[in-house]
Amino acid sequence: MANVVILAEKPSQAKAYAEAFKVQEKTKTHIRLQPDDTFPDGATITWGVGHLVELKEPHDYKPEWKKWKLEQLPIVPERFLEKVAKGKWEQFQAVKKLFQQADVIVNGADVDREGSNIFYSILQLTGVKGKPVQRLWINSLEKDEVRKGFKALQNNKKDLLLFDEAKARQISDWMVGINASRLFTLHLQKKGYGSYLTIGRVQSPTVYLIYQRHKEIENFKPEPFYQIEGLFNSQAGTYKGLAEIKEKDKAKVQAVLDKHQLKEKEAYTGSVDRIDKKTKRQKSPKLHSLSTLQSVANRRWKYSPSHVLKTMQKLYEKRLVSYPRTDCNFITNSEFSYLVNNLEKYKQAMNVSFTPASLKPNKRYVNGSKVQEHYAIIPTKSVPTQKKLEGLSRDERNIYEEVMATTLAMFHKDYVYEETTIFTHVHDLPFKSTGKRDVDRGWKELFPKPKKEKETDLPGVQKGEQVGAKLHIKESMTQPPKPYTEGQLINMMKTCGKLVDDEADVEILKEVEGLGTEATRSSIIETIKKQKYIEVKKNTVSITAKGIMLCETIEGTLLSSPAMTAKWESYLKKIGSGDGSKQLFIKQTRQFIEKLIQEAPEAIQQVNVKTTGEGPKKKWNEPVAKCPACSNGSIIDRYKFYACSGYKEGCKVTFPKRLAGKSLTPNMIKTLCEKKRTKVLKGFKGKKPFSTALTLDEEYKITFDFAKKS
């Protein structure tokens, strides 16, 4: 009898797998399936809770690595080890026990390198060895797709290579983050900087690109430019046109008027010299990848990229859309076939009616050679009822309808419009007027009409027609580049090769699609927001004083270079395809850090701490209050926690920086040390948000006091 154990990435994924079969038993840690033709002896599904295990922190290797000291760098353990993540011990033990009992283990985590990392990291920490491992590889959580996937399990050869790639990335990011953050922070603090910097392989060049846009806007000097505009009055209506001259020097524009014996604001007669009409067609947009969906949703509804990914994940788990973390805009003939079969149902669900232009696959959308791990985001075979659609949240419905409309547009007619150009001559000076008129909205009928989309139809003038004309010199100002929106950040990260001069670097950035991956870009943006390097207000991204400090600090180093990150990403892909070495990559990361350690003192010399507007702040190792336990010590801010300065003399008093989801400020700690009690504080998080006073007990531990009234 074969005991099959399946590891899902999270409980919701395990539940979706289980619903494709008959369930025998459900427990807190696993689900047992009844025997059937897929699993003749039944199977057990268990799960991680995201990352059940994580890389150990510096102090887990050596206690002295907890303190930030320049002389300890570089911090590189001989072997990188993992530990069970905080609060996840019980589930880890359950998974370990099931793995020990298994005859066959199936990796059912997400089908990407992070899913491979999660599975094999857990497997390695359980110590279970020598058991056959198979890989579930699916793009949808629909029941028939899940059953089909389990019947066609793959070997783990590709999975192991993806694990090596993911582990190389995870370890190198750990090394860069730990060492570079300490290195630059400690050098800056010598110059009086009162805060700390966190530095990352991908997040730092991302902040630097935002900083470059900030500098472009800051250094931009608007300049006037001049054109000649004509207002023309025909029998069919008025229209405007521009002469083909655009100059910074107004005198040059005036000279053109003088040459043609024309004056501003005087009445002239013009003649319609030529009318060009062209009918143009526009094909429907390509199918969505995650990043195109994030860009559209941000433009249309101001949703942040991370909110789009979370919403897509919910729709995926409700079996309404295919796998969300895809960078592909194509589907294969297999997906196209089921879309054709369900076309009428999709139209009913969206309450639209149109005759399909074609039911044959078009290479613009259907191209199996362009599909690797995942195909484009499309609706699944599960067509929602009106009741199910009404049960979706507003954001889920908006995103679902965007995916559905983009998919249906593939079957619709082209958008057809007519572009008209009129050339009007006044005293032999030609003026050009352009207009646009819809002929057939085609696929555009499926989408809400954008507010900014206006028809600029021109009046129906005749060739040779005489028209009234008044001219003036139009003054305009050059405009600075606009700050990025949050949606544009995704595109900026993806296409940052356009901002790089070196041709070889441009090619690498193109090959790896810029900074980060489809699955990680939104979390990188969230990280730099959380680190307070950028602010987003009304969807506009601006860099903060802390972000400017980071960029001035890393300027000129490889940490500010998108190309460096791209070269790393390019080599990581080689590891994933079996053409690169994890060990070599980690060795080169160490060499990179050693080079940074040598370069940092000189780089920091150029930085003026006060230029950020932050100025020297209270250092995080300065006293907050007198220690309530010992007479000599003071409670000081130790960056991640508060502690007594007399710890070497044996005083063990410490206080956390965060408690139940709320930050504890130095003032709160001071009040606790002096008065043993705070007022009622809001903003604590449990199953529901709550308010409570804090008290200091006899053992100098912080406790909640719900009895105290505000």
Number of domains: 5
Q: Main β-sheet: number of strands, strand sense, barrel status? A: 7 strands, mixed
Radius of gyration: 32 Å
Strand order of the largest sheet: 2-3-4-1-7-8-9
- The CATH architecture of the largest domain can be named as Orthogonal Bundle
CATH topology of the largest domain: Topoisomerase I, domain 2
What low-confidence regions span 5 or more consecutive residues with pLDDT below 50? 611-618
Output the number of helix runs: 21
Question: Residue-averaged pLDDT, rounded?
Answer: 91
So, the CATH homologous superfamily of the largest domain?
Answer: Topoisomerase I, domain 2
Protein name: DNA topoisomerase
Keywords: DNA-binding, Isomerase, Magnesium, Metal-binding, Topoisomerase
Pfam family, one: Topoisom_bac
InterPro entries: Topo_IA, Topo_IA_2, Topo_IA_AS, Topo_IA_cen, Topo_IA_cen_sub1, Topo_IA_cen_sub2, Topo_IA_cen_sub3, Topo_IA_core_domain
